[in-house]
């Protein structure tokens, strides 16, 4: 079937409710290898977002593919009310890793996608605290199921459908380049943190009963690096202070690591950069390198022990499925075999330095360039170096998909992801296995796109 015929069938019979039609004409890809996608004509597209940061080990990773094939031949499926070895071993490994990192005993509950794990976290909070609502951050993204959208800041995800329970109380994230209060990091004295603490000064600020010593909200939901919000990297000091405020008021901290977990930022969990310990961790995406949906939550023993969270508290048919858990176990083995903390950090520093050099060529247009490990951001601005430039971001995104960029006499395309509060940020999440040569190629292709789209 030709590409044109496929696009016509898609236009006539496929739902447009997902993200495929967010831009112009949808792009069809036919194959992949390493950090490249290939269109039907065989043109290579260097992928800088790797299936929404899932494929950290690259596409068609032979070891992981073989793991999946072997599991298909041995135990491809099993009802989730039975046990299999991969489920038990994976949960134990993750719980033991968390205990080593956080110095707290906890347990793992597995699910399928990120939103499902978020829903489980919400259940754990409500069950533990008896409270429906929570704090969450402006710019935060936690999924598009009804429960998850209640703690996701974008109203457009709720506008048509509403949400279950009470919507979160949203507070500004410490986004220093684009401060909600119009301040500068070097002189603000963490003003945003002080504003949050003020909410507890009096009952008339709506969240605190000083006589009962009780907050209306049971938890604060956070991303240690905002994902869809534009890979916003916060100052550590903010979260150290925030955690102290929460603990004093018996408010749980829920850490959403769905996009940043498993060494994306150079640490196993991104929250390790912030020197704080969460009560619940949500994870998914990269756990299976994107080959099979699997997600889950880790929670402290007092929140998730069998007496507090007994059988039947939550359930999903495909949760802890054999294919996903087998892949996840192999991913953990891969992560243990090499020093990915060093590897990701060094590659991230190299890529960031290259992007900073490119920024010198476009100092106002590339208003902010930053990164933590292999989670990097380019924020595009107008000539004043601050006003968001979503039009330029969209032009570059579309031009990159044409597959006509030149390098050494060969055509290339570039896979980018547009995010950020104003849809003016390229969020970059290359494969951990991307070579320095490929990262240099990425910067060269970005430079070509900037030149082409700024004419």
Task: Provide an overview of this structure.
With 455 residues, the chain is of the alpha/beta class. The chain folds into two domains: 3-60 and 339-453, Aspartate Aminotransferase, domain 1, CATH 3.90.1150; 75-337, Type I PLP-dependent aspartate aminotransferase-like (Major domain) (Aspartate Aminotransferase, domain 2), CATH 3.40.640. It contains 14 helices and 18 strands. The protein has helices at residues 3-13, 50-53, 62-74, 85-102, 114-129, 146-149, 185-188, 191-198, 236-248, 301-304, 322-337, 340-361, 390-400, 436-453; strands spanning 31-33, 36-38, 44-47, 106-111, 134-137, 169-171, 208-209, 214-215, 219-222, 252-256, 280-283, 295-300, 366-372, 375-380, 405-407, 410-415, 418-419, 425-428. The chain has a seven-stranded mixed sheet, sandwiched between helices. Strands 1-2-3-16-15 form a five-stranded mixed sheet, covered by helices on one side. Helix 3 (62-74) packs antiparallel against helix 11 (322-337), helix 4 packs across helix 11 and helix 12 runs parallel beside helix 14. The model has no long low-confidence stretch (mean pLDDT 96).
């Amino acid at each position: 079937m030709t590409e044109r015929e496929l696009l016509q069938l898609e236009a006539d019979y496929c739902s447009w409710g997902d993200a495929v039609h967010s831009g112009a004409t949808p792009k069809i890809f036919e194959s992949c290898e390493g950090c490249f996608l290939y269109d039907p004509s065989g043109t290579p597209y260097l992928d800088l977002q790797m299936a929404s940061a899932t494929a950290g080990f690259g596409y068609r990773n032979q070891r992981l593919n073989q793991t999946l094939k072997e599991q298909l031949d041995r135990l491809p499926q099993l009802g989730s009310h039975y046990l299999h070895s991969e489920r038990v071993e994976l949960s134990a490994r993750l719980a033991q890793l968390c205990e080593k990192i956080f110095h707290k005993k906890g347990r793992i509950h597995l699910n399928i996608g990120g939103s499902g794990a978020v829903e489980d976290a919400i259940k754990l909070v409500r069950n533990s605290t008896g409270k429906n609502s929570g704090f969450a951050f402006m710019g935060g993204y936690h999924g598009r199921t009804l429960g998850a959208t209640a703690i996701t800041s974008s109203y457009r995800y709720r506008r048509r459908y509403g949400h279950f329970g009470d919507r979160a109380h949203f507070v500004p994230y410490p986004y220093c380049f684009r401060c909600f209060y119009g301040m500068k990091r070097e002189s603000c004295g963490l003003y945003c943190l002080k504003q949050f603490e003020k909410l507890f000064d009096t009952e008339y600020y709506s969240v605190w009963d000083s006589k009962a010593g009780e907050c209306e909200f049971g938890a604060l939901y956070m991303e240690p690096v905002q994902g869809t919000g534009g890979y916003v990297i916060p100052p550590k000091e903010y979260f150290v202070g925030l955690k102290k405020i929460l603990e004093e008021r018996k408010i749980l901290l829920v850490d959403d690591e769905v996009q940043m977990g498993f060494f994306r930022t150079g640490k196993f969990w991104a929250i390790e950069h912030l020197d704080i310990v969460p009560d619940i961790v949500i994870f998914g995406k990269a756990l299976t390198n994107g080959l099979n949906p699997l997600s889950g939550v880790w929670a402290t023993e007092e929140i998730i022990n069998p007496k507090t969270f007994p059988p039947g508290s939550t359930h999903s048919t495909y949760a802890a499925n054999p294919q996903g858990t087998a892949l996840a176990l192999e991913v953990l083995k891969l992560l243990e075999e090499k020093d990915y903390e060093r590897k990701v950090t060094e590659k991230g520093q190299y890529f960031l330095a290259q992007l900073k050099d490119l920024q010198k060529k476009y100092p106002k247009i590339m208003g902010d360039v930053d990164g933590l490990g292999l989670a990097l951001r380019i924020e595009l601005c107008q000539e004043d170096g601050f006003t968001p430039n979503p039009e330029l971001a969209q032009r570059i995104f579309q031009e990159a998909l044409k597959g006509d960029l030149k390098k050494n006499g060969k055509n290339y395309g570039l896979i980018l992801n547009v995010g950020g509060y104003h849809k003016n940020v390229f969020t970059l999440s290359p494969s951990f296995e991307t070579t320095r040569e490929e990262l240099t190629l990425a910067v060269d292709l970005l430079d070509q796109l900037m030149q082409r789209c700024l004419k």
